[in-house]
Specification:
about 425 residues; alpha/beta; 6-stranded parallel beta sheet; about 40% helix; about 15% strand
């Protein structure tokens, strides 16, 4: 370790072998931090309950990182005795529509929102503070980062800041009380007030707040005067062999397809195209890669599209990257709600470098719409623009038939993982 090297303690829940988008952000920061004379020390649970696993991500863990493990007790481990399927779905964010929830699911959601505050990992806070307080004092840590969700990890940072006055950066991969699923947790007025109180205390105690979108920054500015920096997610240089494009005209959705993220205008447009154009019907395929809620599959069936579906389920991150590069068109869908304007799905940035056109659907003024349009990588639609969406799919299909379907991106370098790590380092070195 050089004299100039700083030690950064990163407190995170999601870490390989966890799969899904939550693990990527800090896995990649940790990969590049040593290039900037920062020693990453990663604190993770010893026995977590991960809803999604991806052993392939283990190879991306930097050999220069120091990994600390500490046991965690999770209520989800007990809840799984009642219904492993329901518990796993709720843990991974797949919440059934209210009218389709079973009595058990409604009960689990109520418990999740009103007893597990701010989330089901809250029992890890006290043992983590005890463990890390000793570690920080013995190892001359320069700064700590807490990454949420789960937002209970920010409470670890809150206690360490109060007890040791250590420099603390609170990283919000997603908002806290304004995130889309918060309303589905059946919160009592007491629970809602407690969530907001904890959020306010974290935002006003951390030295610096890091967010992934400008909308979240504006929301937090109404709560705190502390510095707020936007560092988006990004893309990495991946070792992917050149992929042969799918023979079919594939529209691929990669990632969790939640119940509320149901683009009926897309299903309607595709239904019309398959009926109006026999050639389109002969070539079209809808690829679903990742966990898909039953409500989405039911909706697809209602529009007579089920025969066109290739439902591949969850695949490794490596396989997902390969599908991104060989699918004809990539689908990016966000919930149609003002609360989701700030959400920039992590896969957006991998989509940008896939060299495939993106069809994005979301609420008006979505932060990710600006990214897609400014980089010339696709087209964004609101949920009211079915006719425009249909015409775009038709034009993409004509280019596909001519073997001319491609994109010409601009300005992608700003979203590279190494460039984003450089932004992070400037905050640590202040």
């Amino acid at each position: 370790m050089s004299e100039d090297e700083k030690k950064l303690l990163i407190i995170t829940y999601y870490w390989p072998p966890a799969g899904g988008p939550g693990v990527q952000r800090w896995l990649k920061f940790v990969k590049y931090l040593p290039d900037f004379d920062i020693q990453p020390i990663v604190y993770i649970p010893e026995n977590p309950t991960y809803p999604i696993m991806d052993e392939g991500l283990q190879k991306d863990v930097s050999d220069k990182a120091i990994i600390l493990n500490n046991r965690i007790f999770e209520p989800y481990q007990l809840a799984s005795f009642f219904s492993k399927n329901s518990t796993q779905k709720i843990s991974s964010g797949i919440i059934p529509a209210a009218k389709k929830q079973t009595l058990l699911q409604r009960f689990l959601l109520w418990i999740r929102g009103n007893v597990f505050i701010p989330d089901a990992r809250f029992l890890w806070v006290k043992p983590s503070v005890r463990y890390l307080k000793k570690y920080i004092q013995e190892n001359q840590i320069d700064a700590i980062v807490t990454s949420g969700p789960p937002h209970s990890l920010h409470l670890i940072g809150l206690h360490l800041k109060k007890e040791l006055n250590v420099t603390w950066l609170a990283d919000f991969r997603d908002p806290w009380t304004t995130i889309g699923y918060h309303k589905a947790l059946k919160l009592s007025s007491y629970a809602e007030k407690k969530h907001k109180k904890l959020e306010r205390e974290v935002l006003n105690t951390a030295d610096t707040i890091i967010v992934t979108s400008k909308t979240t920054k504006e929301e937090f500015k109404a709560i705190t005067s502390k510095p707020i920096e936007v560092i988006t997610n990004g893309y990495d240089v991946e070792n992917i062999t050149k992929q042969v494009l799918d023979e079919k005209f594939t529209l691929a959705h990669i990632g969790s397809f939640l119940s509320d993220r149901n683009p009926k205008l897309l299903w309607e447009a595709l239904n019309e195209l398959t009926h109006e154009n026999q050639n389109f019907a002969a070539h079209f395929q809808l690829k679903l890669i990742g966990k898909v809620s039953q409500e989405i599959l039911d909706s697809i069936a209602q529009f007579n599209l089920i025969d066109y579906v290739a439902n591949l389920g969850y695949v490794s991150h490596q396989q997902a990257l390969e599908h991104q590069r060989k699918s004809q068109v990539l689908l990016l869908i966000e919930i149609d709600s003002p609360e989701t304007k700030s959400i920039i799905p992590g896969k957006v940035f991998e989509y940008l470098v896939s060299e495939r056109p993106i069809i994005a659907i979301g609420p008006k003024d979505s932060d990710f719409a600006e990214i897609i349009t400014s980089t010339n990588t696709g087209v964004f639609f609101t949920y009211e623009e079915k006719d425009k969406l249909k015409k775009t799919i038709e034009s993409y299909f004509e280019l596909y038939l001519e073997k001319k379907l491609s994109v010409f991106p601009v300005g992608l370098q700003q979203y590279s993982r190494k460039k984003l790590t450089e932004q992070l380092v400037k905050l640590i070195q202040k």
